[in-house]
Design a protein that fits this description.
The protein has about 45 residues and is mainly alpha-helical. The protein has one domain. The chain is built from 3 helices and no strands. The radius of gyration is 10 Å and the shape is globular. The model has no long low-confidence stretch (mean pLDDT about 55).
């Protein structure tokens, strides 16, 4: 839930006007999340 707030507060951090609101999906997938987040602590082998 904290991530949702971060998106609203920091739209630039999770900026994706092309996809609309892929923040949740990308976060779940971990593929885009890794690119958004430099240090993928929970995503990635």
């Amino acid at each position: 839930m904290e991530q949702r707030l971060a998106e609203d507060l920091d739209p630039e951090r999770h900026r994706a006007p092309s996809e609309g609101i892929p923040q949740e999906l990308s976060d779940d997938a971990g593929d885009d999340a890794g690119e958004d987040d430099p240090p993928p602590a929970g995503t990635g082998p």
